[in-house]
Design goal:
- The strands form three sheets. The chain has a six-stranded mixed beta sheet, with helices on both faces. It has a two-stranded parallel ribbon with strand order 3-4. A two-stranded antiparallel ribbon has the order 8-9.
- The chain is an alpha/beta fold.
- Helix 4 crosses helix 10.
- It starts with 15 loop residues before the first strand and ends with a strand.
- It is built from ten helices and ten strands.
- The protein is globular.
């Protein structure tokens, strides 16, 4: 496989991340942006970033823009200043070539969407973690919501970590906006219960339970009535599993934001 970044010395293996990305108002939170900035400050500097966001489902798997194009403001009804955010990260054509080689096989095509910019699941956390926007970024789609198949995608992408690529699954550890409208202040029980269960399952390495989370977790269907915000975790887990690092994980961010669990996890 061609190197993602040509250099004389091998880059340090990058960890694989799953983060809860927040809505655009994340930037105004008094705590969360600093948590993301502190997290990135403790990481090796990536040569490139591969983002898998809950907000892009496309099958077969698709690659976004490999040049700098406008962001995708995939939200409605927010104040105007959230639509003025810019994140002009360099494109990552070399990384895109590497992803195609790793994922494309007979009967398994890979699509290209050259005009598809970063959506808010990608750029909102990147603005806080890498504000200079000087690291090449490629976003790929979620080709399925099946956890087992997504782990396989992550395993196939795992060699990129040894080329200095930071693989980031961006979702939300609990995500049910409709249910939040029916509760008062504080953290709803279903969100707290699922977060506690998920934390313990990750720490104990109970991969089978996580893969079957809708049936084996408390309030799983309330925490994720659609599973797209939990799905990126399995791409991250696959990238960790290929390197035998599922047990080398830690929750870097925990707690809640507007009642949703913002747990974010690092493998490796």
């Amino acid at each position: 496989m061609s190197a993602v970044i040509e250099e004389r010395t091998a880059p340090e293996r990058m960890p694989a991340l799953y983060l809860s990305h927040g809505a655009p108002p994340l930037a105004d939170d008094p705590l969360w942006p600093g948590q993301l900035a502190a997290w990135s400050a403790g990481l090796p500097r990536p040569k490139a970033i591969l983002m898998v966001s809950a907000h892009w489902e496309e099958a077969p798997l698709a690659l976004g823009a490999v040049e700098t194009v406008p962001l995708v403001y995939d939200f409605w009804g927010f104040p105007e200043h959230y639509y003025q955010v810019r994140y002009a990260a360099p494109g990552a054509p070399r990384l895109a070539d590497a992803v195609r080689k790793l994922l494309r096989a007979p009967g398994i095509p890979v699509q290209d969407f050259p005009d598809r910019g970063l959506d808010h699941g990608a750029y909102v956390p990147l603005v806080e973690m890498f504000p200079d926007a000087d690291i090449p970024v490629l976003q790929i789609s979620l080709p399925t919501l099946d956890p087992v198949k997504l782990m396989d995608v992550g395993r196939k992408l795992a060699p990129l970590r040894d080329e200095g690529v930071l693989i980031v699954g961006s979702g939300f550890f609990t995500h049910n906006l409709a249910a939040l409208r029916h509760v008062g202040g504080g953290v709803p029980g279903w969100s707290a219960e699922f977060d506690d269960w998920g934390h313990r399952a990750l720490e104990s390495g109970d991969i089978d339970a996580l893969l079957d989370f809708t049936r084996k977790s408390p309030a799983g269907r309330l925490a994720h009535p659609r599973t797209e915000h939990f799905a990126p975790l399995f791409v991250t887990m696959g990238a960790a599993d290929a390197a035998g690092e599922l047990d080398a994980q830690k929750s870097v961010i925990d707690g809640f934001w507007l009642g949703l669990a913002k747990r974010s996890v690092q493998f490796g």
